[in-house]
Amino acid sequence: MTELKAGRGGEALGISRTGARSQRSRYGDVLIALAAFVVLASLPLLFGSKALLDFVIRCSAFGLFATSLNLLVGYTGLTSFGHGMFFGLGAYGYGLIMQRTGVPIPIAFVATLVITAVVATVIGAICVRLKEIYFAFVTLAFQMLIHSTILSWASLTGGDQGLRGGIPRPAFFGIDLSNHVHLYITSCALLVIGLLLMRQITQSPFGYTLRMIRDNATRASFVGIDVWRAKLTIFVLAALFASVGGIIMALFVSGAYPEFAYWTISGEGIFINMLGGVTTFLGPMVGTVLLLILNDTVTRLTEYYGIVLGIVILFFAIGLRKGLMDFAVEWYKQRRDSEKERG
Amino acid sequence: MDLDALTGCLASSACLVTQTTSGLIIGMLLFLVAVGLTLIFGVLKVVNFSHGAFYMFGAYFAMTAYQLTGSFALAMLCGAAGTAILGLVFERVFMSRVYGADVLMQLLVCYAFVLIFDDVVRMIWGPEFKSMGMPAAFQVVPLFIAGGVVPPYYLLLIGVALAAALVLGLGLARTRIGKVIRAAAHNPGMVSALGINTGLIYGGVFALGGGLAGLAGALAAPVRSLTPGMGFSVLIESFIVTVIGGMGSILGALIGALLIGLIRSFGSLGFPLFTEGLMYLFMVIVLVSRPTGLFGREVA
Fold this sequence. Notes:
The complex is a heterodimer of chains A (343) and B (300).
Chain A: H1 2-12, H2 19-46, H3 50-76, H4 84-101, H5 105-127, H6 132-152, H7 154-157, H8 180-203, H9 205-215, H10 217-223, H11 227-253, H12 263-276, H13 283-301, H14 305-320, H15 324-342
Chain B: H1 3-11, H2 13-44, H3 51-69, H4 72-93, H5 103-125, E1 143-145, E2 148-150, H6 152-174, H7 176-186, H8 188-193, H9 198-220, H10 231-245, H11 250-270, H12 275-289
Antiparallel strand pairs in B: 1-2
Helix pairs in contact in B: 1-11, 2-6, 2-9, 2-10, 2-11, 3-4, 3-5, 3-9, 3-10, 4-9, 6-7, 10-11, 10-12, 11-12
């Protein structure tokens, strides 16, 4: 039902694409994803550096998280300040299931996603009714509620110590995640598949429905779109991808810590989005890489990390007034236009 | 969970008085921070995410002034005036550049300053915990009310905060400047067309908000320890207060702050580990039942 309506919504916006073209762009996305995966997967063969692999694994975790946040912020106009709760939920859910039950990794993975979906549906159903700044605040409140719950339910979650003692990583299908290269390849695969799926969501009629809701929710509802349901759907979907990011993080550090569910994770996600830009699909991914590089170099160079990071943020917010990818895309467009005029 | 402690306390007048006063001072400090936040939002439509930094600076300014001069009154004045000037400069130089921009851009500028201000404090005053110490005038025998212990400084704190609330409320409702500020909140374009410098009003409101947060920091300095980043938990709590009370409402900020203060002081008895959780739970309940807060009007 929603799909049907969504399709009509897309046409109303004048974005009805021919089937062949959308098919071709879908193949294009798959090809790009495959190429990206091949490049990432060949890195361990070319460089022996463990630090580089660690860096890419962290990029996978935060990249999935930040891109999923962009589904809400950039595509739907829902500024969530509590998206980090699903990152934390993924890490804790996965860690707890593995530690307590000892089921194979794929089952724990799926079970974590199911738990996330249930929690996100409940929280989302309450939150997406609210508008703008109130949506931001109530999501923040839920985030802090989950954080407080993790801290106070020490018998289950280990309180402020986090989930310690390591998370078991039994081998499955010949993949042994305690092997660093296997873990690396798995993270890359999850990242690429996750990005590809999110790309499909944004390019689908449903994705265009979301853009319409962002630009004019009243009009969308007049066209016959159930705005509440569409918002809830994307809220849950985004939560799932954030949860996968959290699972990668839990796999990487072999534990889960309350900071994963703290609001600063959400703040960082928003910051990454602004850094990379919210108008392009890959903006948040670029932002993730930028922020992590910035983090690593600045902490090595100075103890006054905040001042440097703050000045960089000011440069983006007041200087560029947009993210890096937004800036690049606009610059490219301007150049092309001026060339057209000359030619 | 420790419900016995909570019911036990509710039954004894001594404990009741002690907990209520401690709730009141938490609430009153929060009110001073939150009222600035709500005022800035009401007039400038900006969520000042860096408001906690003003609280922090107020405390540090007061401590330094107290160490240099030994005068408590001067320390309070320094805390409030110093942060007011800081607020004015911050608004004119940085925030005024992002008024037309996306809410996210405004938040980002504030976030940048949260990071910068924390590091500046660490550079000037050092990363370790500092303490201002209780002024000699208040190092007297505490009062006993119905068996409960009430330090005299708490009474001063509550008195100052209430006075600030009264002056602010009356000033906004009755004076000419108050009228102009309310008009600017309602329709800045019209106010500016009438020949009133709205930029000055914006700067003034930001300075007032910053000054109030600074005053809260200065008042808190003798009873709390000072550390870079101390503004943060206060910021989050004052956000909860403004959201519960309704963004832009001064009465709402007062009621919200008192409720949060009491929830904190009594909640710490009954649910020692889940005190923070209680506040967030309360906020969720209020937001879900009344999205604009208890005293908030529909925001345009």
